[in-house]
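Memo to structure team: turn this sequence into structure tokens by end of day. - J.P.
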Amino acid sequence: PLASAYGLAKHRDGRWEWAIAPGVSPSPRYQHAAVFVNARLHVSGGALGGGRMVEDSSSVAVLDTAAGVWCDTKSVVTTPRTGRYSADAAGGDAAVELTRRCRHAAAAFGDLIFMYGGLRG
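Reply from structure team:
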């Protein structure tokens, strides 16, 4: 798996140039999902080398493209609004358990991110 993030920057003369995202990137992963909310790229879930699931608070990584830095995600993920998901039944923090998956789909709508399906390790 790779841990690099690149973007294309368009120059005034119409040329495009690859630019690498600065800062410390999250753990290398594959089979993750990534969506934009405003200028922030949210990368959720995925698998590490050897097929292990991305665990704990590192299951969500956020790249602030306006500032050009990877954000501290300790306060990014909160518990579900519906109250239908039980952290006790999942054996841990509900927010982390909901993002601990791979091969899932994600979509952003306004300030919300929806995740659907996938696999758990």
